[in-house]
Structures are given as structure tokens and as C-alpha cells.
Design a protein that fits this description.
The complex is a heterodimer of chains A (144) and B (110).
Chain A: E1 7-16, H1 22-35, H2 44-64, E2 73-81, E3 84-91, H3 114-122, E4 125-131, E5 134-142
Antiparallel strand pairs in A: 1-2, 2-3, 3-5, 4-5
Helix pairs in contact in A: 1-2, 2-3
Chain B: E1 3-8, E2 11-16, E3 20-21, H1 26-38, E4 44-47, E5 53-54, H2 56-71, E6 76-79, H3 83-91, E7 99-101, H4 104-109
Parallel strand pairs in B: 2-4, 3-5, 4-6, 6-7
Antiparallel strand pairs in B: 1-2
Helix pairs in contact in B: 1-2
């Protein structure tokens, strides 16, 4: 869990499991990072990276959710606490084994498999686990 | 998805008029590239000058085009990569795979 003494922001978003919402969610994440600029520091790269990892995580959640269940949603939770940023993306499907996701070698020319690579490369801590309210992909980043 | 094509100097130029390439529209880009090859398009140049954001599925669509070009023994080049987009190619080391030019003019002159 993301626990800290000073919570600057908590944002809980639920969207239908449709890729049309990727832009909206990505832009929200990017704007959150940009707003951190007001405290000093250059967060342009962080803004892009946060947009990217949230986009990749929500895309994964959509892919692994139950496609025939119209009630299926993807839940995204973002928080900024002290000097830590935390993103949790919940899905309600069968889930997947994140440890089994292999990064394709560049010469393989594989069209898939780079989403988790981006997330792992750009965030400090990544964990995927089952919880009582679905599967959750948790991603953390220190802001300093 | 806004995509425009034109013939320039014997090459097919595909202009991606979108600010964002993600899982919502990358399938459409992949299909358009494939269709251009199937219709006899040669030496495809994809202009990404308007694209400010690309994710793994966007890279996947471009890799599909690259592989199609190899299969058909024709060219496939990218131009106009914005700085943030370029870093995604560098992070995945895909800049070593693609033929990338700073501008359309330079791609057409090859």
C-alpha cells in the first residue's frame, strides 16, 4: 500500500475498459506531474513518463479484463504523498504473471512485450498482485 | 484517425496527423501501412512530425510496417520524430532497427 504522513493528492478514477479512454487517463496523469512543477523542479520528462506508464498499465488492464462483461471497468488510483508518487491500476480479469513477461530482444522485431518494459524502466517499484478487489498493478516513483 | 498519403519523388509518404499513438489507434495505423504495401506502395516514409506521444503499441505498429517492408524488399523510413518520441525508440534500442531521418526532405533524397 502507498502510505505516508502527508498526502498531497489522491485521485480515484473508474472508466469503462475501452481504449478510447487511454488519452483521457494519460493526460490526467501527465497534468498531475506538470502541476508538481509549481513546487520547483523540472517535471516535463516525468509528465511524459507518467502518461506512458499509466497508458501501458490501463491498456494491460483492458486486455486482461473480461471483454464480454459490459460492467467491467478499470480503476486507476493516483496519489502524491510526501516525495512519492504512486499509481495503482486495478483490473477484474484473470490477471497475468508479470514475472513471466519477457522483454523482447531488439533483433526479434516483436510487436509486443514492451509495455511492461517501459513501466519497469521508468518507475522505481513495480508489483502486480491479486487483492480482494481485483488484480492491481502498483507502480511507485520517488519524486526527488 | 487522421492519416494522409501522397506520392513524393517516387516514394509513398504517410503522414500521421495525430498527437498521440496508443492502443486505441495504433491498430488502424498498422492496417493502413499494410494496405499501402498491398496496393503496391513502395519505399514508404512515415512522417511522425505531429506525434507527441507514442506507447508500446504505437512502436508495435511501426515494427509491423518495418517487417512488411523487409518481406516485400522495399524501404520503410521514419521522419520527424519529436524529442520525447525519439527517447522511446532509444529506450527500446529500436532506433537501431528503423531507418530514421530528421526531415522528410532528407528521407526523400536517399
Amino acid at each position: 500500500m502507498c502510505k505516508a504522513s502527508e498526502t498531497l493528492l489522491n485521485l480515484d478514477i473508474v472508466v469503462p475498459n475501452q481504449t478510447r479512454y487511454l488519452r483521457l487517463i494519460g493526460n490526467i496523469a501527465e497534468q498531475i506531474a506538470r502541476d508538481l512543477d509549481e513546487d520547483g523542479g523540472d517535471h516535463e520528462a516525468l509528465a511524459y513518463h507518467l502518461n506512458l506508464v499509466v497508458t501501458e498499465a490501463v491498456t494491460n488492464a483492458i486486455q486482461y479484463a473480461c471483454p464480454n462483461d459490459e460492467k467491467n471497468k478499470v480503476r486507476i488510483f493516483l496519489s502524491v504523498e510526501n516525495e512519492n508518487l504512486c499509481v495503482r491500476v486495478y483490473d477484474y480479469g484473470q490477471g497475468f504473471d508479470i514475472e513471466a513477461v519477457r522483454v523482447p530482444e531488439v533483433d526479434e522485431l516483436s510487436e509486443r512485450g514492451r509495455g511492461i518494459f517501459f513501466i519497469r524502466s521508468l518507475m522505481d517499484h513495480v508489483e502486480y498482485r491479486k487483492t480482494e478487489c481485483g488484480n492491481v498493478l502498483e507502480m511507485k516513483k520517488r519524486l526527488t | 484517425m487522421k492519416l494522409m498519403t501522397e506520392q513524393r519523388d517516387g516514394k509513398t509518404v504517410l503522414m500521421v496527423k495525430e498527437g498521440r499513438l496508443d492502443a486505441h489507434n495504433s491498430g488502424e495505423l498498422k492496417d493502413r501501412i499494410l494496405k499501402l504495401f498491398e496496393e503496391g506502395g513502395r519505399d514508404l516514409v512515415v512522417d511522425l512530425g505531429d506525434v507527441q506521444f507514442i506507447d508500446s503499441s504505437g512502436l508495435g505498429a511501426l515494427l509491423s510496417g518495418h517487417k512488411n517492408a523487409i518481406h516485400r524488399t522495399t524501404g520503410f523510413a521514419l521522419v520527424g520524430l519529436q524529442p520525447r518520441v525519439k527517447t522511446m525508440f532509444e529506450l527500446t534500442r529500436l532506433q537501431r532497427v528503423f531507418e530514421i531521418y530528421p526531415s522528410l526532405r532528407e528521407a526523400l533524397d536517399v
